Request: fold
Amino acid sequence: MCTGKCSKCIGITLFPLAACAIVSNILLYFPNGQVLQLSEITDLVWFFHGILGAGILVILAAFMMLGAGGARCCANRCGMLLSVILSALGFAGGAYCAVVSMLGLIGGPLCDTGDGEYLYPFRNDTLEENYLFNQTTWNICKEPENIILWNTTLFSILLAIGVIEAVLCFIQVISGLTGFICGSCMRKRKTNISGM
Reply:
C-alpha cells in the first residue's frame, strides 16, 4: 500500500472543507446578512477558528499532503516527515475550530433582548436549561433577527468541519509516520528487492 496515495486523497478532501470553514466563519460576522457594529458581534467569532484554524492551517497541510502524494517531488522519507509535521498542525487547527465552535454553541449569541443593550442571555444556563434544547427561549433575542438560528447553524457546520478535518489530519499523521518509517510505497520496495 502506498502512503503517498492516502496522502493525496486526504489532501484533496481537505481543500473544500477548509473553504467551507472560511466561508462559514466570515458569515458569522454578518448575521442574517446584516452589517453590525464590531461590539455587536459574538465574541467567539473573533477567535478566527474557521479562517485560521480549520482554514489556513489545514490548507497548508493539504498542500503538503498533495506534495507527499506525488511520485517525484516529496514521495520520500523527508517529504513524509514534513507531511507529518504539517498534518499535526492541521489536526491542531481542526481541533481548535471544533472546540471554539462547541463553546459558541454552548454560550449562545450576543443579541439585543429588547432594551437596546447587547448581551449574552444564555451564557449562565445549565446544560438542562440550555437554549439549544429549549427553542421557546429563542424569542428572547430581538436583534439581529434570527441570530440564534444563524449562529447555531454556522457554529454547527464549523464544529462538524473541525472534527472531520482533525480526524483526516490524524489519519495523515499515522500514514505519514508509516511512510517515514517504512518508506512511502511498500509495493515499489518489494519490486526493487525482488529485482536484485
In short: The mean pLDDT is 86. Residues 147-182 form the longest helix (36 residues). Strands lie at 111-112, 118-119.
